[in-house]
Amino acid sequence: MQIDGDICYRALASRDARFDGRFFTGVLTTGVYCRPVCPARTPRRHNCRFFGSAAAAADAGFRPCLRCRPESSPGTPAWAGTSATVTRALRMIAEGALADGDAEALAERLGMGGRQLRRLFVEHLGAPPAAVEQTRRIHFAKKLLDETDLSITQIAFSAGFNSVRRFNGAMLDTYGRSPRELRRRGAPPMRPAVIRLRLGYRPPFDWRQVIGFLALRAIPGVEVAGVEGYSRSVAIGDYRGVIRVVPGTGDYLLLETEAAAAPELPRIVARVRSLFDLGADPDVIDAQLAGDRQLRPLVRRRPGIRVPGAWDGFELAVRAVLGQQVTVRGASTLAGRIAAAHGEALPIASAGIDRLFPRPAALQSFDGRGMPSRRAATIRALASAVLNRPALLTPDRHRDAFFADIEEIPGFGPWTAHYVAMRALGEPDAFPASDLGLRRAFAAIDANGTPSARSLEQRAEAWRPWRSYAAMHLWATLGARD
Q1: N or C: which end of the chain has fewer CB within 10 A?
Q2: Which one of 34, 38, 48, 68 is the catalytic residue?
Q3: What is the pLDDT of residues 227-268, one digit of tens each?
Q4: Distance (Å) of CA 157 to CA 130, 154, 404, 445, 458
């Protein structure tokens, strides 16, 4: 990972928020590492060491600053676009792939050796996988200490530590203080009813675009979305309940969930960040797409556009099948009927949300009443495929392997495959070129008539590696599109 120290120092001296999360500064005289926006007095240049990730700074022996709270950084995009393998590995780590510390097993799932994975992490992140996982746990625990009323024991296990003793030792080693000393307020209640966490992002963030997209596609009984917020039922680990996401007063979204969800918080946070595409770097994406003369007005109209993800890959794939050749609202209505007939009821209903979307086993014999027989057959085939290959729709899939596998399912053509890749896999460069809406939207800015799928695909080559975001810009000109 190449870091230009002089550029970093100028950004540090000016406290330029645009660099927040892009690098961290290790200060030799204090032994801490800071964000570029740290309010502390700027250290002298010769006392600074610069790192592309918090994990790299921690691996070099620096501890997190208590003033600027590196755990609240909007994320480090230095690796983005440089290694698809590192991207996939980080998603897997966020979902708990290194909970047992087995980096070799992670490497095997990625189809490589442990040494090669370590080399890639050091090259792109400046730290090996174990250091990245340890920093993730420490940062998440510090965030829970600062922002929730969970007990120390709950925080220890929520953050991924297998004992309170190890948690206390790790925090003491990192911060020089115990978890109780790090807590800024008095003794919290031991049984909080609700957990609230801030999930930072890199601005600009087009909340109305994201929530509008999700609202049009919300599944009745499973999701509720509007300008004021987004709520949905979730099943993750042993937890069954409802989460809610609302816009914050700063550059963050606020996640709300029951305290009973505490053991699954890391995975819940990872999925919510993916659902709202909070890891995107809009400065880089917008700059690339605005370089295209025809896309430039769309980018200026909607800076910070996101590609809404999915809570669950199977749910999204079923929703995509239902959306073939019907209206957006029509597909949502069908999805709601399927959920009502085959989904598990929640223990307690909440604000119009009363059930979970059905799992693959519940749709393996789906009768498809009220819809074309071929579409029902596709849903049955999809359910069987996921039951036979549980990793089929997980975000860590390599895109080429995913496309090859998904298009083997009857009823899954390139359009559906690319749409699912955009949202379920978080693939930034998917592009369903055969979509009639995309073709019509491009015709409106090109004035050469509606292009064929092939010609639009060729034109979209200039938008790589952000074709998914280009698709969102084009769809946004049409309003409701699936």
Answers
A1: N
A2: 34
A3: 999 999 999 999 999 999 999 999 999 999 999 999 999 999
A4: 18, 5, 39, 53, 50
Per-residue DSSP letters for 233-298?
EEEETTEEEEEEEEE-SSSEEEEEEEGGGGGGHHHHHHHHHHHTTTT--HHHHHHHHHTSTTTHHH
Instruction: State which of 81-90, 202-211, 443-452 shows the largest mean pLDDT.
Output: 202-211
- Residue 34 annotated among the catalytic residues of the structure: yes
Residue among 20, 206, 286, 435 flagged as catalytic: 435
Compute φ and ψ for 231, nearest 5 degrees: -130, 150
- Placement of tokens 């027989």 in the chain: 373
Q: Are the beta carbons of 421 and 429 closer than 8 angstroms?
A: no
- What is each CA distance from 105 to 113, 117, 339, 392, 399, in whole angstroms? 9, 11, 35, 18, 20
- Would residue 435 show up in a list of annotated catalytic residues for this protein? yes
All structural domains of the chain: 5-72 (3.40.10.10), 84-182 (1.10.10.60)
Contact call for residues 67 and 38 (beta carbons, < 8 A): yes
Q: How many CA atoms lie within 13 A of 272 on its CB side?
A: 30
Give me the phi and psi of 354, to 5 degrees please.
-130, 0
Residue 184 has pLDDT above 60, yes or no: yes
pTM, two decimals, is 0.91
**pLDDT tens digits for 117-174?**
999 999 888 899 999 999 999 999 999 999 998 999 999 999 999 999 999 999 999 9
